[in-house]
Amino acid sequence: MPQTQPVLVRLPKGADLLDALRDACATRGITKAAVQVIGALEHARLGYYLQDERRYVSYGLPEHCEILCGAGNVSLKDGAAFVHLHLTLSRSDGSCLGGHAMAGCPVFAAEALLLPVPGAELARGFDEATGLQLWQVQPG
Ligand code: ZN
Question: Rounded to two decimals, what is the model's pTM?
Answer without folding.
Answer: 0.95
